[in-house]
Amino acid sequence: MIAEVVAGLVLTDGGRYLDATFGGGGHTRALLEQCGPQGQVLGMDRDPSAIAHGRSMAGRYAGRLHLYQGPFAQLAKALEQCGWDDIQGALFDLGVSSQQLDTAQRGFSFRADGPLDMRMDQGMETRITAADMVNQMDVWELTKLFFSLGEEPRAKRAAHAIVQARSRERLTSTRQLAALLEACLPPPRPGLHPATRIFQALRMAVNQELEQLESGLKKAMDYLATGGRIAVISFHSLEDRVVKRIFKDAALPPRVQGPMGLLPQPEPKTPPFRLVVRKPLTPSREEIGSNPRARSAKLRIIERAHSSSSRGL
Known about the structure:
The chain is of the alpha/beta class. Helix content is 41%, strand content 14%. It is built from 13 helices and seven strands. The chain has helices spanning 2-9, 26-34, 48-58, 75-82, 98-102, 130-136, 139-150, 155-166, 174-184, 196-206, 209-223, 237-250, 285-290, and strands at residues 16-19, 40-45, 65-69, 87-93, 224-234, 273-275, 298-304. Strands 3-2-1-4-5-7-6 form a seven-stranded mixed sheet, sandwiched between helices. Strand 2, helix 3 (48-58) and strand 3 form a beta-alpha-beta unit. Helix 7 packs across helix 10 (196-206), helix 8 crosses helix 9 and helix 11 (209-223) runs parallel beside helix 12. The two termini are 33 Å apart. The mean pLDDT is 88.
């Protein structure tokens, strides 16, 4: 959804923009090409291989591309490292990248055999792996994990199967776990592998994705200049719910707290943010046809309407 993102952010010449999920650099390139010869982009990613790729393309942009390796929770540190006190826009393209899925050694995909890892930063910040979780958590913990983060209705059945299997041998590979889940779970729907939701839950838990999203998105909003926009592309309901809630709360008038809230109040103040789109934008048929992984994408955009003193709170 590059075209929709570029149009939604309304890039200005010489602006400073954050691509919080650098990945393969496609969105960053589009931002750099549209924000004028003086515009700058900070590409941030917790995956060191993404940042290494970014260094190979940095020379083409004459000091306009900055890079930072770290999770969303370090967003303020990344901006301070650039010397930026505000940004004119930001993009969050959530979930796992195609490059990560297609690299078997990363352990994200059940379609190719690899170590049961799933760490986006390969141990630079995250220590626990998916193998640690499936081999150490008890039935109740696994059931809760699969149901809450994978929205898997047969979470308990999957948890029991994993605990029984690991009593015979440690689960260490993606193919090993995928075969186990395929044997104990029927497909959720035609074309969807039985392991899909379990792998999703493990990946999100290993990388603390929802917690990182909430932390990073709120911090980006703190740094957003008046008139600046933030665009978020999410790929499943849990991510989208977090984004929707944060954006909705930010676009409401400030509420009076404590006993004063019981007294007659003046007209509500203008909210510091406004929703650019009430309902999320979705990919075109053409994009889904060329990239089936985009079929579940949802794009939400918010704009800072006026300045606020909320930073750091």
